[in-house]
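Q: A reviewer asked whether we had any structural model of the full assembly, not just the individual parts. We don't, so I'm hoping you can provide one. Inputs are below.
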Amino acid sequence: MSKLCVSITETTAPAVIAAMKTLPAGVDMAEVRLDCLDGDYTAIKSDLQKICENRDRPIIVTNRPVWEGGGWSAGETWRLLLLKEAADMGADYVDVELRSLSNISLSELPTRKIISYHNYEETPSDLEIIYRQCRYSGADIVKIATTAADISDSARMLGFLKKHSGAPPHLIALCMGEEGIATRVLAPKFGGYLSFASQGAGKNSAPGQIEWRDMIGMYRFKQINAATGIYGVMADPVSHSMSPAIHNAAFASRDINAVYLPLKVKDPAQFLDSFQPLGVEGLSVTIPHKTAVIPLMDELDDLAARVGALNTVNISDGRRFGYNTDVAAALGVLGEAVKKRRNGDLSRCSILLIGAGGTARALACGLSGSIRSLVIANRTVSRAEELAAGTGALACSLEEMENHRPDIIINTTSVGMHPETGKTPVAARMLAEKPIVADAVYNPIETRLLREAKEAGCITASGFDWFVDQAAEQFRIWTGRQAPRELMAEVVRRRLG
Ligand code: NAP
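A: Here is a predicted structure for the entire assembly that you could use as a starting point for your response.
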C-alpha cells in the first residue's frame, strides 16, 4: 500500500514539530526540508536534532540544493554533511540527489536512502536510463519527479511506475505541475511507494502538490488500489472545477471504488489515447473540448449527436460513448417548471433564449422542433442571427427582446454571475406577465434575475438545479446507480459559500 508523506516547509524546528503533530494518523510520514529552515549549518544541525527527537512518525530528511529546485545555497560540503548527520541521528530516510552521488558515499549513511532525480522543465524520454542510474547506485527507493508539459506525460509516468513497481527497489514516480496531479493521486493504483502532499494552502514544496486534507478526504488516497476506477473532468483551465469535489463525494457515499480527478487537457485525442489504457472509465468534458471530442467517440446519444457537443464520456469494453447530460438536465429542469404552470406541455410554449454562446447553442438545438416558437436575443446580434438560422428561430437584439411576450425566458448569458451579482439581463417590466424564468447562472444560487422573477410571481428554474442534475445524470450513466443528488447539491452549496 502506498504511503502518504507530507512535506513540511516550516522555517524553525518548533514549527516543524508542531506541523507534524497536527497531521492525522492517515499521514504515514513527513518530509523535513532542511533547505527551508532558517540559520547556518550549526543552527540547522541543532534543529535537526530536536526534530529527530520529537518526531511522531517516520521522517524523510531532504536538503534540496538550488541547482535541483530547492533552497539550499550554502555550499555542497555543508549540505551533504547535514544529510550524514541526519542519518546518524536516526532519520528514517535521507534523500540524496542522483547528481550529488559523486560527492557522497552512500555507505556512510546508516539509514534508508532515497536516490532522487528532479526535472523542472520536462519529462525526458530517457526515464529508463535515469531509473537504472538511481537503482544501481544502491538506492533503497528511487524517486523520479519530472514536469508534465502535457497530461500525456503523466500517462507515460504512470505506465513507467506500473512497469517497475513490482520489483525492488521501491519507486516513487510522479509528474509535477497541474498536468501531473493524476500521478500524485494514482500512485497507489500503480504501485508507487509513496506520494507527497502539502501541509496546507500555499505551503507546497513542489508544483502541483495537493493538500493532505484533500488527498485523504476528497480523493480517498488511502483506499485507492489496483482495482480503483479512474474518472475525471477534462478541461482547460480545470483548477476552478467543482466536479472533483462533487463526484468524489458521490463515489464515497455509495462506497464505489473509484476516484475522480481534475485533468488539464490540451489535446483531447492525445489525452484519450494515452489515458484510456490506464483504466479510465468515465469523463466529464467541459470548456473548450465539448465539441472537439465528438469525432473521438464510438457512439453518441441522441442529444449529443443533435447538439454537436457532449459533456459526458462513458468507456466500456474499450468503446467510448458520448452523452449530453447538460442539455438533458436543462430540459428536465424546464420541464419541471412547465409542469407547475402550463400543464407540462413544453411543446405549446414560446421561448425567449437570451445569449448565443455555447450553452445557448446547445439549448437551441435541444429545444428545436419541440416547442411552439423560439426567439434568440443576444448582445452581438450577428451571433444570434447565425444561431437562429441553424435552428429555425427568430433573432433579435437585447433591446428588441422586450417586444416579445414569451411563456418562458431562459438566460444563458453570464450576466448576473459572481462577482457581478447586482446585474440582470431582464428588465423587471418583462416579468409582469409572469413568464417561467430559467437562469443558467448558478453562482450565486439565487441570481438577481431569479429573485426578481420570484418577487413578480413567476415560476423559476435555477442554474443550480440544472448544474446538479447534469452531474447526477453523469453519475447514473457511469455507475448504473441512482446518484446521491442531495449530497451532490450540498457539496455545490458549500463550494459556492
Ligand atoms: P459563452 O459561450 O462565453 O457565451 C456567453 C454569452 O453571454 C454570449 O451570448 C455573450 O454575448 C453573453 N454575454 C457575456 N457578457 C455579457 C454582457 N455583459 N451583456 C450581455 N451579454 C453578455 O458562455 P457559456 O458557456 O454559454 O455560459 C454562459 C453561462 O451559462 C455561464 O454563466 C455559465 O456558467 C452558465 N452555464 C450553466 C450551466 C449549468 O449547469 N447551470 C451549464 C452551462 C453553462 P456576446 O455573444 O455578445 O459576447
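A: Points you may want to mention in the reply: The chain has 16 helices and 21 strands. The first strand starts at residue 3 and ends at 8.
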